[in-house]
Amino acid sequence: MDDAAGTDFSTYKEIGIELVSPSTGIKYYKPVANSSSKPVVGMCFDSVDEAFEFYKQYGRSSDMMLKRLLNKMEFLPNFTCHYTIKEDGRYEMVFVPFTCIDNHNRNVTVGAALLGNETADSYRWLLLTFLSTFGAPPQVVVTDQDAAMKRAIKDVLPRSRHRLCMWHIWDKITSKVGANLCGTTDFKKRLGRIVWDDSIPIDEFERQWPIILSDFNLSEHEWLGDIYNIRHDWIPAYYKDEKLSGLMRTTSRCESENHFFKKFCNRKSNLVEFLSHFDSAMEVQRK
């Protein structure tokens, strides 16, 4: 079958949909489709329905062929066939949803993409596509500390306020500083009071931060120094007067959306199944 791992097809003889081994006579099969019906990198569709119909048509060739082969194996005892699917994900693509907040403070998925990798170039292409579709950049973007995404946002959305997810940074405290210190002292509690308090004045935050670190001999801690240097991007005290400051401090809304989509999709779905499940998820969300 198609995608037989480790098989060298260069010596195989091609007969229609069959690739025949010259030494063993074993036959491998491949989907039949003309060039206009085969998916290629960089394809764009005007709608989910159009993409779904395209991949449904393409998938029929391999799916119908597989059913014929399995039926043949059932009725012909001497006939055998095997097919393989990669265990680590059929396409190894990254699902990237765009989650926004509507006027009722609810999550709304306004777009999504499947990326072949998580490079800065891929994110730039995605953000440019987003801009061409919506016509205007978002006021605020909240992400984790992914470096490639940060570069892409800086290049494509220079007017958008890019904030880093507080939760992702705070969740690393124990592993970076040490479980013993966090578990046997009030270090994390004291630091949390000034980190999560969006009413604290900036000068008070900057006064207390070095005092807390000094009390626990952490003044020279490299990671704590790094997150302090980017404090304007994740500490609420520095953007409490900006738009959406209280609604968008973490990516918890995106994490909630990811959990929502997992109810409908899984990493082993083929593209046809994924698009169908995604469409069903959108119908449920918009009810």
From TrEMBL:
Q: Name the lineage.
A: Eukaryota, Viridiplantae, Streptophyta, Embryophyta, Tracheophyta
**Could you name the domain of life of the organism this protein comes from?**
Eukaryota
- Family annotation (PANTHER family): OS01G0519700 PROTEIN, PROTEIN FAR1-RELATED SEQUENCE 5-LIKE
Q: What is this protein called?
A: MULE transposase domain-containing protein
Q: What is the organism of origin for this protein?
A: Tagetes erecta
Provide the MULE transposase domain boundaries. 89-170
Q: Supply the InterPro entries for this chain.
A: MULE_transposase_dom
